[in-house]
Amino acid sequence: MQIHGFQKTTLLDYPGHVAATIFFGGCNFCCPFCHNKDLVMAPNEVPVIPEETVLSVLHKRRGILDGVCITGGEPTLQPDLKDFIKKVKDMGYLIKLDTNGFRPDILKELCREGLIDYVAMDIKHTKEKYPIIANVPHFSITPIEESVEFLKNGSIPYEFRTTVVREFHKEEDFIEIGKWLDGASRYFLQGYKDSERVISPGFHSYTKEELEHFCYLLSKYVKNIEIRGVD
């Protein structure tokens, strides 16, 4: 397991729960506004935390923590992810998975085997503009669509979320995204924050009022819409 980060306590990453967060390296996307540049661009240069170290800490913190967030990079690329989650799940933890949705086979397997309690899936853009963000040669939207439909029609609690960047996302895009996510249970718009950790720094955010306007446009399609990361 390529564990490159371990946050022992978070009150933000798993809605409604005190949790730890585990960061895996590597991603099959290269989104320019991604804030985990090192994990995406050069995971081999980031120190690896032994799996045994992480499991030992989680074992000691049983009763203090409710859950564990599995994030990245893109964790579904890890070949031993299921076995690792089983070990954590056996300690009694709830598991939240963050994913870009490009591995619906892995997502379905983990959910159907009862190993995932909550899924947070990124929605990068409209279907047509996804390749602009993902930066993947010969990109196919089909796996993303499959993951969206699986979550919308399944029984696992989930959220969709979009980091909103002024240079990439426009008003008409959210109408198209709303049509795509029609009937979804929960959707978050996340305010972009620039930093040196971003793959391509220099982008800009929208104001809270502008994001609220996007939420209004989306409310025709998605019942619960909220804003994150904006003061």
Compile the SSE list and pairings:
Blueprint: E1 3-10, E2 19-24, H1 37-41, H2 51-60, E3 67-71, H3 81-89, E4 94-99, H4 104-112, E5 118-122, H5 130-134, H6 142-153, E6 158-164, H7 171-180, E7 186-191, H8 208-218, E8 224-228
Parallel strand pairs: 2-3, 3-4, 4-5, 5-6, 6-7, 7-8
Antiparallel strand pairs: 1-2
Written description of the protein model:
The chain is of the alpha/beta class and 231 residues long. The chain has one domain: TIM Barrel (Alpha-Beta Barrel). 31% of the residues lie in helices and 21% in strands. The chain has an eight-stranded mixed sheet. α7 links the parallel β6 (158-164) and β7 (186-191). The model has no long low-confidence stretch (mean pLDDT 96).
Q: Keywords, please?
A:
single chain; 231 residues; alpha/beta; eight-stranded mixed beta sheet
Largest sheet descriptor: 8 strands, mixed
- General form: globular
CATH level 3 topology: TIM Barrel
**Category from helices, strands and their pairing:** alpha/beta
Percent helix: 25-40%
CATH level-4 homologous superfamily = Aldolase class I
Number of helices: 8
CATH level 1 name:
Alpha Beta
Low-confidence stretches: none
- Rg of Cα set: 17 Å
Percent in strands? 15-25%
User: What is the architecture at the second tier of CATH?
Assistant: Alpha-Beta Barrel
* Overall tally of structural domains: 1
Distance between the termini: 36 Å
- Report the average pLDDT across residues: 96
